[in-house]
Each structure stands twice: as C-alpha cells, then as structure tokens.
Amino acid sequence: MKQYIALTNSEIMNRISEIIHSKRDREIMRLKLIDGLTLEQTAEAIEMSVPQIQRIVKHYMKLICK
Q: What does the pLDDT look like over 1-21, one tens digit per residue?
C-alpha cells in the first residue's frame, strides 16, 4: 500500500519551484496538483497529448513527494 505525504498547497508550490526548472512543467504540475485538473484538462490547457502530460506528472510526483 502506498503512503502519501500530506502537503499544503503552499508546500507543494515551494517544492515545484525548487525542483522544476522548466516553466512549462511547473505550470503542468500547478494545474494538476493545485488546481486539480484532470490529465485530459491539463493536456488541453497546455496543448500537449495526455500521454506526454502523464509522463511529466509521473516523473515529478516522485521528486515532489520525497
């Protein structure tokens, strides 16, 4: 069973800013984690495919949740 760390929006934004250097990727993670958009909604907003968004989110979630 996976355990998730409970972080405030402020803590999440701080981690996003510290870890992610790409402006586009920071925006993707903000939309997903703070605004609560689905992968599909995020992909539409950023004009990327869902699989691309999914890879980016999966990659950064590992780093943000350490």
A: 444 567 788 988 999 999 999
